[in-house]
Amino acid sequence: GRWGGWRLFARSPTSFERFGEQPHAVDEAAADGEQRQQPMEPPEGGQLDGAPPIRRAPTWMPPLMAKEGGDAPRAWPGAWLRDLFAQLKGRALLLVALLLFQSASSVILRRYESLLDRHPTLIAFLTMLVGAGGNAGNQAAVLVIRGLATGATRRASMGSLLLSELRVGLCIAALLAALSYWRVDYFLPDDAPHAHLESATVATSAFCIVAIAVVVGAALPMGLYLVRLDPAHAGATIQVVMDIVGVLITCFVGSRLLSSHADEVAAQGG
To answer: Under a CB-based contact definition with an 8 Å cutoff, are residues 256 and 208 in contact?
Structure first.
């Protein structure tokens, strides 16, 4: 009642107070505690009834592999090799397949070798074109992968997302095409025979490459997700795909624009 609240603040008695501050009582309590702390001796079989089994190191394991006291063994050194092979199985195989697939660009370049010899400007800006396609495709792929990971992108919204990426891709392609035309025209000398035509070839190629890259970059992780594969592989795949597609588009557009112009000049000269 009135003094109940003070009980919460009452000090617990010390060991001397419990035993009446008698030294012999404290000594008996300490001796009794020492007896309780003494470990129990195991029976002859080495195992207490109801106790968990003692984990000991196997006889085949080297001494350096076992902890002191015969406790559980440490991790076998070959475990990190198994982990390494497990990671390489999913990553190295994909990179090897992409490497072999990317070698197809050499076949395309060999097919249009005569065109590239007559117009070395296309070779000078070929890496810029395929790089722009890879960057645009990878950017779209990362956005879709993040949406799949967070749950923002679902099966029902994939169609609308592709349409949105198509509109964005066309705008980005138009912007990069204009910059590509200015870059090539600034690079070429004023007295170059095909300066404006080569600039138009690079700009047209840039527009087609970037527009296709954005759409393919957004569709590739969706396709991998639908077939129950890891969408994260789309980042490396889109780079290789756009390298081949970029080389093919550049050579095709160059053959149509530059070769037709050369045929017209030859016909006028004849």
So the answer is: no
